[in-house]
Amino acid sequence: MTRGWLVVILAGAATLAIKAAGPLLLGGRALPPRLLAVLRLLAPALFAALVVTQGFARGRGVTVDARAGGLLVAAAGAWLRAPAIAVLVGAAAVTAALRFFLQ
């Protein structure tokens, strides 16, 4: 078995354990309000970290390139509450155009 498959299997097992831990540990009880407040902030924080990492990282460094233009278009489209497909197509088109003209 390769190292890659071992990582996939371990990640799957960890995900399953994490998902099962909540119902097993709580047993139908409500979460404490303080923990619930933290959990509500967790998803947006992880999403922001993913966006920044994918938008500005190149290898081990930070760079501003065509992806930043697409990210700005996507952020503007989301802020204007445009349809998701329009945001996606607009961001991809701007990124592609910037890559074409800047390289």
Strand content: under 5%
Taking strands numbered 1, 2, ... along the chain, how are they ordered across the largest sheet?
1-2
How widely separated are the two ends? 41 Å
Mean pLDDT: 90
Shape: extended
Low-confidence stretches: none
CA radius of gyration: 20 Å
DSSP summary: helix tally = 4
The number of distinct β-strands equals: 2
Q: What class would the helix/strand composition place it in?
A: mainly alpha
**Biggest sheet features:** 2 strands, antiparallel
H-E order? HHEEHH
Question: Which percent bin holds the helix content?
Answer: over 70%
Describe what this molecule looks like in 3D.
It contains four helices and two strands. It is mainly alpha-helical and 103 residues long. It has a domain at 1-30. The protein has a two-stranded antiparallel ribbon. β1 (57-58) and β2 (61-62) form a beta hairpin. α3 runs antiparallel to α4 (84-102). The radius of gyration is 20 Å and the shape is extended. The chain starts with a helix and ends with a helix.
Strand and helix layout:
Blueprint (H helix, E strand, L loop, with lengths): L2 H24 L6 H24 E2 L2 E2 L3 H14 L4 H19 L1
Antiparallel strand pairs: 1-2
Helix pairs in contact: 3-4
